[in-house]
Design a protein that fits this description.
The chain is α/β, with parallel strands linked by helices and about 600 residues long. The strands form 6 sheets. It has a 7-stranded mixed sheet, covered by helices on one side. Strands 19-16-17-18-12-15-20 form a 7-stranded mixed sheet, with no helix packed on it. Strands 4-5-6-7 form a 4-stranded antiparallel sheet. The protein is elongated. The chain binds adenosine-5'-triphosphate and magnesium ion. Adenosine-5'-triphosphate binds next to helix 3 and strand 8.
Length: about 600
């Protein structure tokens, strides 16, 4: 049955899934790696720590960092944060909170070209919205430019860095390949004096972009390509969003990153797997300088089905207007999820459930939605809204009468109380809740049949009114005054309970229904002659107008969340005004995750 009475079965299914969830730490669709219990260490119960927390706990026990725990979240301010970043944020801030430490929010702003204040502001906002607090102030890698420069000079003096005049293309050629060693740059053996002179003139702006670099002098035959004399500084005459024109040489990420951690005294420098191969280089830099050395720990980044996560691709979606902006409710950005109606609690709980490990995999979007429903079910006030209205006229109801029916705000939360909703002669129900010729399993309204209107009366359909084209435009029904409150004194039963909105006091609204942005589970999978945008779902947004909403939502504010009974979870869109209400569907009520679980079990 699609009617309200199925709520309790739904709840039972939820509980069952919860049980399943608490038993298995991973329900991740296999992609790169087969997930088994052996290669995770989060399977034995709630008190088992993930492998990173285990390291931190051990370090606290042995006093490795004098009991200090200082983590950091280091975004590059070149885009908006997405759900993948949330995984990293919850990990770093979570560990700090759980072990009595701190977590720095530090902007890795070493690339002047793609970075902007707009991104800095949005990132700060998003981290706070997710519920995390960071130290007294936010930190910026660019604040350490002078110190980084001095350390570069130190490496030159130690004979461990040199100025190189090879072009970018030549540098690539000299580097060799995975199977072939590189060869030494002809500038590799410049004297310390010459290097110091050239480097200071690089800084002074004497040379053009790309004409020289500062490189670390390591080993051009090293099996790890990252160790083959990597570039530390490049010349770039570009204004930086914070340091303006102070610099025309900028540190490369690999040079800057470890130094930033060292300067701040980070204890556990947690990053994603692709930096595992860079760790020997960070180690080399810190050891060569003889400065404070944090411990780097790598974990697998989050991938989600039906979406893309790279900032470059997200930017493309925005710039090419495939979506309305960074906060389009279909975007996996935190801004998009927020506008869609996601709560910070739901996202935090998702991050907790997926945990962390060392194997790349893809998480089913349905799991994120499952976490969302868990939270919204507890917290969302219920209201009645009819998205595709079918007019119902109660022929035996007094013309101008309006009754106010008491409705429960949230059956999951008795403290949420009740509200009154108006009932009148003219009402709206969902078009889908009526069928002129109902098939066997359709229990809702049909000619001659009686149903319950939630919080109100039984009604019976007597007549179907059609327009000239044969479309059903109105139902004539009668109500039974004795059934007020929802039960018949004579004990007769009905098989369905429908939501409805009375014409009296109804609010008109636009409702936006969303589907996955992509039609493919993995839109990034490389396909001959295809681009990820070829897999965009052309039906990912459906806009309904003329929807009818009960008047209690009259003063709704942007981002308010609610459940439209039987229709799903919704939130008020920031486009909403007093004259034109706009709602976004956050999620339907159907938990597809439960279906997936069932299928997997039976297969
Ligand atoms: P992109 O490669 O798309 O530009 P990024 O990972 O380089 O993104 P950053 O701003 O450098 O973006 O990310 C900040 C932090 O968030 C990094 O520590 C990074 O490891 C982490 N992070 C980014 N994406 C994910 C993800 N999908 N899952 C987990 N952590 C992530
Ligand atoms: Mg990055």
């Amino acid at each position: 049955s699609f009617a309200l009475s199925s709520n309790s079965t739904r709840r039972k299914i939820f509980l069952k899934i919860l049980l399943i969830l608490s038993k298995y730490a991973f329900y991740i669709t296999d992609k790169d790696t087969k997930m088994t219990q052996e290669n995770t260490n989060q399977t034995a119960g709630p008190e088992r720590l993930d492998f990173i927390r285990q390291i931190v706990a051990d370090d606290c026990k042995t006093g490795k960092w004098d009991g200090r725990v200082l983590t950091r979240f280091p975004p590059e301010p070149n885009g908006y944060l997405h759900i993948g970043h949330a995984k990293s944020i919850c990990l770093n801030f979570g560990i700090a909170a759980e072990f009595g430490g701190r977590c720095n929010l530090r902007f890795d702003d070493t690339n002047p070209c793609k970075e902007e204040q707009e991104y800095v502001d949005s990132i700060i906002h998003d981290v706070r919205w997710l519920g995390w607090e960071f130290g007294e102030k936010t930190l910026f890698g660019s604040d350490y430019f002078e110190q980084m420069y001095l350390w570069a000079v130190d490496l030159i003096q130690k004979g461990k860095a040199y100025v190189c005049d090879l072009t970018a293309e030549e540098t690539r050629q000299y580097r060799g390949t995975l199977t072939q060693p590189g060869k030494d740059s002809p500038f590799r053996n410049r004297s310390v004096e010459e290097n110091l002179d050239l480097f200071s003139r690089m800084r002074a702006g004497e040379f053009g972009d790309g004409t020289r670099t500062l490189k670390a002098k390591i080993d051009m035959a090293h099996p790890n390509i990252n160790m083959r004399d990597p570039v530390m500084y490049r010349i770039l005459h570009a204004a930086h969003h914070r340091t303006g024109d102070d610099w025309c040489i900028y540190p490369m990420y690999d040079w800057a990153h470890g130094l930033e951690d060292s300067i701040e005294g980070i204890t556990h420098s947690i990053c994603t797997l692709e930096f595992e191969n860079h760790r020997p280089l960070y180690d080399w830099f810190l050891d060569a300088l003889g400065i404070y050395h944090p411990q780097q720990i790598e974990f697998a980044r989050l991938n989600l089905t039906y979406t893309v996560m790279s900032k470059r691709k997200l930017l493309r979606l925005v710039q090419d207007k495939f979506v309305r902006g960074w906060d389009d409710p279909r975007m996996p950005t935190l801004g998009g999820l927020r506008r869609r109606g996601y709560s910070p609690e739901a996202i935090r709980s998702f991050c907790k459930i997926i945990s962390v490990n060392k194997f790349n995999s893809t998480v089913d979007f349905a799991l994120l939605e499952h976490c969302l429903r868990e939270d919204l079910n507890r917290t969302s006030p219920r209201v009645m809204a009819v998205l595709r209205p079918l007019k119902v006229v109660l022929t035996n109801y007094p013309d101008d009468q309006v009754e106010w029916m008491e409705a429960v705000n949230n059956p999951e939360d008795p403290a949420a109380g009740t509200r009154n909703v108006p009932f009148s002669k003219v009402l709206y129900i969902e078009q889908d809740d009526f069928m002129e010729e109902p098939p066997k399993k359709f229990f809702r309204l049909a000619p001659g049949r009686e149903v319950r209107l939630r919080y109100a009366y039984f009604i019976r359909c007597d007549e179907v009114i059609k327009d000239a084209d044969g479309n059903i435009v109105e139902l004539r029904c009668t109500y039974d005054p004795a059934t007020r409150g929802g039960d018949a004194p004579d004990g007769r039963k009905v098989k369905a309970t429908l939501h409805w909105v009375a014409d009296a006091h109804a609010l008109d609204a636009e409702v936006r229904l969303y589907d996955h942005l992509f039609t493919k589970e993995d839109p990034e999978a490389v396909e001959e002659g295809k681009d990820f945008t070829d897999h965009l779902n052309t039906d990912s947004l459906q806009t309904l107008t003329g929807c009818k909403i009960e008047p209690s939502l009259k003063d709704t504010a942007p981002l308010d969340r609610c459940q439209f009974e039987r229709m799903g979870y919704f939130c008020t869109d920031p486009d909403s005004t007093a004259n034109k209400l706009v709602f976004n569907r956050t999620a339907t009520l159907k938990d597809t995750w439960a279906k997936i679980q069932k299928k997997e079990k039976s297969s």
